[in-house]
Amino acid sequence: MTSGTYTPLKLAVGYLVGTYLLFLTLGRAAESPNLVRLTLFVSAAVVALCLGYVVHARRQRPAPLVTVSAGANPQTPRLLVLVCATYVLLLGIAQLGLIGVSTPFELLQAVTNPGERYFHQLQQEGQFSRPVQVLTLLAMLYPLLIPLAVVHWSKLGGALRLYVLGSIGTYALYYMAIGILKGLGDMLIWWGASYLVLIGYRSARSAQARRAGRPRRWPHVLAACAMLLVFLGYMAYNQSERAKSAGQSPAAMGNPVVARVVGEDLAAGLAITMSYPTHGYLGLSHNLTVPFEWTKGVGASPALGSYLEQYAGIDPRYDTRYTARTELATGWPDGMYWSTIFPWLASDLTYPGSIAFMAVVGWFLAKFWLESVRQRRILSMALFGQLALLIAFVPANNQLGQTRPALIAFASLCVLSVAARVGQRLATAERPRAVPVAGRQRDGLPVGLGRPVGLSTVGR
After folding, report:
1. pLDDT tens per residue, range 174-206
2. Residue 445 gets which letter from DSSP?
3. Which of 23-56 are b and which e, b meaning 16 or more Cβ less than 10 Å from the residue's Cβ?
4. pLDDT (tens digit, 9 = 90+) per residue, 127-173?
């Protein structure tokens, strides 16, 4: 067990505890009808996440570190990177076409007016496009691109790097053109998770080689902080533009001291930005006052409910989920404001069940982290990014089940991961055992020990 074994858990706990402390100190905690109960529930959920993670980390013996020896012939999955980048590029172009942006001038107008475009997009929900519908079925290629690109960046070559940046940039422009931050946040989270895997692998490799000293991490920290500041700055600008488009008074929303420094509009955007990761806890406190009513397995995921309603004729029971019934009981708006992930989960699992669910999340977070760092499995990296996304949106909602692309991507990656593991075990069972030769290694593994193949690994 290395020093980096618990790095994701430390970051997750720091984030969840930090957002809740921000809610208690600078948020709307005074409006909570049951602050003690809310605090106990959030604490129990964080403890469950920790328990699940620690149980797997302590009980699981890490696999030998997969490395590439000097005599090996490393192969970078350039074709897979190219396929994923092409998918993201086509998806970005199709989405821009769906919202009516077809010229550079129209794109510039849309990007520079995020507030106006945001409310315009809300009025256009439900638009249909056959290309977008088809591309949605292949949504798992989207969360695969960034982990692959980050881990193999130094080996992709100049042309492929530019192509990857162009595809990601095109898709990012779509979200900037509709004034919605969700897609930009997803990419930032996946980049951070993938970079964490890269740093963890390099640290483990250095420790295995017994090199003196530790790898320098401050350049990575500075890069991450710079990207986060840029995103938060754009988010504040975006929110201030929304406030102006909605006719709200920035002076009433922003802190007067901050307003004197950065201006009233940006101060309003900063105030709303700060409320993003905190106001969901107030929604949770309202939801905790509503009695349980089972939604028969569809309350946690609006995307699943929409599929069942469209193709199976099953009532998704939207009116019985916690967030809908809480609006009727307390007035906390369903869909307009967040209520954290827990009421969504509790609609199917109950609140004690949602705490147990966090323990499962912790267990798989440890599993995918250790597999990503030590075995360099592509699918584990992608699923680690998916769980990072889920944890980042814990103060908001069940992000992996909110939209159809998110649900398809997560479900597809899970199915592929299980299939790859089953195939690997069958292949190992059929392969004749080789006798390890003392002192000989191939690609960092003793001869005779099976190596992950195909989609399960990268870095060859």
Report:
1. 998 988 888 888 999 999 999 999 888 877 766
2. E
3. bbeebebeebeebeebbebbeebbebbbebbbeb
4. 678 889 899 999 999 999 999 999 888 889 899 999 999 999 999 99
Bridge-partner residues for 337, per DSSP?
334
Q: Output Rg (C-alpha) for the chain, integer angstroms.
A: 23
pLDDT tens track for 330-355: 999 998 889 999 999 999 999 999 99
* Closest to 201 (Cα-Cα) out of 67, 76, 71, 78: 67
For residue 77, give every residue at least 6 positions away whose Cβ sits within 8 Å of its Cβ, in sequence order, or none: 148, 152, 378, 458
User: Residue 240 in contact with residue 265, Cβ under 8 Å?
Assistant: yes
What residue type is assigned to position 17 of the chain?
V
d(CA 220, CA 150): 12
Between 211 and 33, residue with greater pLDDT: 33
Distance, in Å, from the CA atom of 249 to the CA atom of 239, rounded to the nearest integer, reads 13
pLDDT level of residue 231 (50, 70, 90 thresholds): confident
**Token digits for 100?**
């009516």
What type of residue sits at position 354? S
Sign of CA dihedral 23, 26, 27, 31: positive
Task: Give residue 91's Cα distance to chain centre.
Answer: 19
Distance, first Cα to last Cα, the chain: 24
**What is the phi/psi pair of residue 442, to 5°?**
-135, 120
Q: Element (H or E) spanning 442, and its range?
A: strand 441-442
* pTM for the full predicted model: 0.84
What size, in residues, is the chain?
A: 460
